[in-house]
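Researcher: Next sequence.
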Amino acid sequence: MTYAKKAFLSLLCFVLILVTAAPAVTQAATTINDVPTNNGKYKAISWAVDNDLLSLNSANNFLPNEQITDRELVVMFAKLDKNYALTYNESVAYNFYSEFYLPFNGTYTTANRSKAVTRGQFARIYAAFKGLDLDEPQAVQYLYTNDISTGSTGKKTFADFDPSTKLTRGDIAEFLYRSVQNGNFAVLGLKRAAAGRDNDKITLPPGFMGSNNAEFEVPKDNSNDFTGPEYVNNALQSIDVEKPDLIANDQDSTLITVSLKACNGDPIPDDKSYTFRVTSSYGAKIVDTSGEAVRNVQSDGSTVSAIVIAPKLTKSVRDTITFELINNTDPGMKCLVGEKLNAHVRYSPQPEMRIDYQVYDPANTDDNNGNVTPPYVPYEKLPTFFTENIINVHWINPEEKLFSIGQQTNVTNSLGNVENKYLQYGGSDKNYPALGYENAILQFENYNISVWLFETIIQKRLKDSISDKVEIMYMISDDGRPIYRIQGIDDAIASQVENINPVGSIIQLMGYMPDEKQLTLEHYDSVMKIYAILTSLSNYDRTVLLKYQGGKLLGQVEAYKKRVEALKESADAASRPSGKDRYTKVMVTLVRPGGEIITDYQGTVKIKFDGVEKTASFVTNTSDYLNHTGSPGTAVAYFDSVIYGKSKAEATLVNKIDPRYATILKDFKDKTIVKEIFTNPYFSKNSCSLATEVAYVVDYSASMKASDQTNYRGKKMMEVINQIKAKNNIVIETNTKATVLGEGTTDNVLKKDLYKASKEKGATDIFAGIDLALSKFSNDSKTSKAIIVVSDGKTSKSKMTKVLNDAKNKGVRVYTVSIGKKSQVNDAVLMQLATETGGTYYHANDNLQLHQVFQKIIDAILCKTSPSSCVNPEDLFEEATVTLRKGNITMNAKIDGNCSNVAMINVRFPSLSGDVQFELTKRSDNVYMLTKTVQTMQDFKVNNEIEFVAYDKDGKIIATKTVTITS
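Model: Next structure:
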């Protein structure tokens, strides 16, 4: 080959490389009439038209100010993406990018695909495309630093980007043109749903968020666009949103309850339960009462409910929360299949002054008093196309908490065709990246284990495998979480323990643990999971374990537990301030609209608790209450007192507000924020003792989410068990069915988790729980027998007559308790159950009253008394108001219906000639009212405090409540 030919070929190759590497920027084939060539965006728009990203209309107009929809954006990304090799069908593109967790709004909600995209949303999507999980401010800064945008005016602040403005055709042409110019346009994506996990990788320059609230869209009054439910035949009765307006801060939450009937209009029995998928159009979190994310919720008879946590947002939006019936096999509910039951919630960014607290008292270390929310537990992505069956683990990465899993299964390809193939997540096909397992349900046999144990076992089995893969079982839980179960107890172990599964599991799991001296806090969860299996053993199983190696292993488990508990206590002690034997710790944090904590506020706050005031600085590197790491931006004050029951903490910004935040925090000037504090009280020392057998039946059906969202009833019931110290304890959880969680002596049952791990799900049948409890009592006539039931009374009554007769025949008293709003309780059932068995029914409005109720029940059981159902006379008045309207003064009182000894309610007014009382007229069992004209009360000091007084039949004062008049 001649030199000239070689030179020509070299030049040709160089030109081809340039053409391939750079975007086409040639003149559009036809003239663009509405974008002149001297327009700054012309080159980008011309490139977008030439590359078939955007087209001209019939008049050759580009329409640069027209908005871009979500479906248009996803197809544009697909056309440019070097890693995308499928058709440019929007559904195929959405499915492809869902594997990379790109936060397109239309991925799972088809209706959102036609909605316009904001500039801020584009920034988040683009950052996720490039492999960064960022919130809008950090995503905008990422665009600036990579020369994708220069802002509207060149200031390059968050507000300058106009994040809430709709993305236009001109915008997207320019952004994508610059991106392709800067390098390879190929998706990297995320490993889990976008939540701002990479925010710390982007530094926001000083002043980026500005010193005023112009960077945030002002919350709009959306009250006029709130619509009611769409009725589906006769089935949908109502949708109730407890709090329709939430702060967009990733913390504020609401309970949504959907009331249903069968398709023919008949009531749904209380013992029926159905499964519903719950989704949010704006990515709000759906959680259970423990804070763990869920996909599915179960109905309880006629109601289905879900807890929704508002996302972090810098603009006001209205979200649609959708309930959809799934896995239905009941013909009576067929009309709901495929229907979407929609509730609406509004999120608005607001500045906040948050008050959190923690209480430490060495005399009450079992209580974790405080309101610090545990970390949110997300759910792991389910492996699409996998069936609930055996899967293979090919590799596991403990550092990133990812693993590669595969299964022979049916896969629907991009053309909609089904093919049977071996599908491996984390293999060579980039469309199926490795999956996370950290927040899945991890098991050995059918027992929950820790992440550390799961990783250790998988790693060992992979090392020993000759096929470079390990088989495990894959399943899906009722609430939609993946379950990964390791199976297989060694034959040598199984043969020595009579093939008893829990015993073999304990032995095998302990074999993976390090020596006792090498235990660290990393092993705490592993040891406690093994100990939980130990406490679940029956007496016979425990005997078999004792025979294994002469009982050495049983003692080893107990020793390991003591070791890790001591390590944890040492770590907890190190995090507490020195020189304080007991304290209440109050923490104050300032938060921007949108949920971002202000970490550099220059100033102080006055904190008041129990009559003591302290001043604290916000520029404090205090111990973080979750991770024990530095956390600047929180003002902290320690108080030497601990108040058990109800109290409050107050916070007021001192002096002039930091000028950098003067605008967004202007509402806090001279304003005191008050936080109600509840610290779990002690029970009184027992005044009587008695040989007893007590059964504890606690309702954990789905409807109890509305009554007790913190599981205080479960925590408190375990304290009741410890306080009564019955000779025989029968601990039962009931929902669709009744389950014995523990039975025997107090020491033995309290070794178990009992109600700690209980979660609300399914329908209600408290009589099944009581029936089970009655079958567990001994025939010892010398022991007193009682049952304590906590429920909302919404239950199947099919066993009611039998249970009542059995309880009366066996001399078992039943004490029933409801909690929460009276309107959510079927007290007739609970009252009948208690009355006919010689017990007492109580209703507690809140946690403090529940403590007081349990105190009364403890005294009644141990002292064999019959107390009044009136919980606490101090809280007799549920409502007390005096209102002035149209020349009339109306006095209204609503009392606790359990307090039957109220004979009269008076209202006492101060006047110039002395105090005057009016007796209110009884309008119903619990309501008293009276109206007087203003003319009859001219002599009275109506602007002063007015007192409501309750009397018994002997004229003795039972309770008082002081109020002021309102208009």
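Model: The longest helix spans residues 552-575. The first strand starts at residue 236 and ends at 241.
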